[in-house]
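User: Could you walk me through two proteins back to back? I'd like the raw sequence and the structure tokens for each, with a short line separating them so I can tell where one ends and the next begins.

Assistant: Of course. Protein one, sequence then structure:
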Amino acid sequence: MITRADKEQEIKLITEKFGNAKGAFIVDFKGIKVEQVTNLRKKLNAADSEMKVVRNTLAKRAFKDHPAIEKAFTNSMKGTNAIVFSYGEVNATAKTLADFAKDVEVLQIKSGVMDGEALDDAKIKFLATLPGKDQLRAMFLGTLLASGSALARCLNAYAEKLGGGATAGTEEAPQA
């Protein structure tokens, strides 16, 4: 039997996790086998996330310190729930959950929250399709480099058209 002190400690732990997380998701894990849950936890750890099975009454009491989360999650707290806390990139966590839900159809992503904004099913699916931070950086750098390299190719083609090519700038100027 769980004591009142244990409940208070659990509520405090959940509240701290919400305070540290950049985003969170409510998932229904009813019907998932133990091996599958273990596999999901490993995948979530790789995405800098954590899944915690919580009692609905304790979670609702922990929501009191986070009004935006309370508003987003209160209606979802029915049945067997787990909260997935995302400490890193929220879209990586959403992608991990969405990919796992494709393989294990029993897993349901009920709702989510990111930066105090509630996420419905459509927003979570869209978030899962976004590239990660490293991919976005690479795309941005590629965009920046593309214009410089295009200019260099254009200047080189113009120099070749004039007849000098790449060696045109290396020849010495004639003496007068």
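----
Protein two, same layout:
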Amino acid sequence: MRNLLALFLIGLASAAGPASAADLAPALSELSFTSRQMGVPVEGRFKRFDAKLNFDPKKPEAGQVSFNIELGSVSLGAPELESELAKASWFDSKKLPLAHFQSSSIKARGSNQFDVAGKLTIKGLSRDIVVPVQLAQAGGITAASGGFVLKRLEFKIGDGEWADTSLVANEVQVKFKLAFNGVPAL
């Protein structure tokens, strides 16, 4: 169903890093997505996710980020849709509860912007993605924000009858804002 997407979530992304380990501040972080069902936007979010970040803005190429999303934590504001997404044709979250992103490289683009490349794995299927990330710091918190388009059918999200893209669009817009403590000054 709708949204399937969500998946998107995945991904996610994040910021960068090497030298020092940073801690995710979950209460200040968010992971959302927008899919289209029969042309109508459907918005959702994931309530539970975790990220590990090692990053020094002066050496971004040495950075690493990993990100896990609990697929069963999807929230669409409609319990019947959320239970549908748990099914095998969508997230199969009982059998495969996590989506995972692992960075392979981080490249600075200037003005506190970075391209984070890596593998996104959902439902046991992995794809290479590049996620543009913008970093900002205030009050000891580093916010990594960005987004990307996820193609749900590449991960068999919305399999079977739901593979018809006139019902549920293949493209899912994923957006994130991840807040970290412990990142060195930009």
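The CA atoms of residues 88 and 95 lie 8 Å apart.

Let me know if you want the two compared in more detail.
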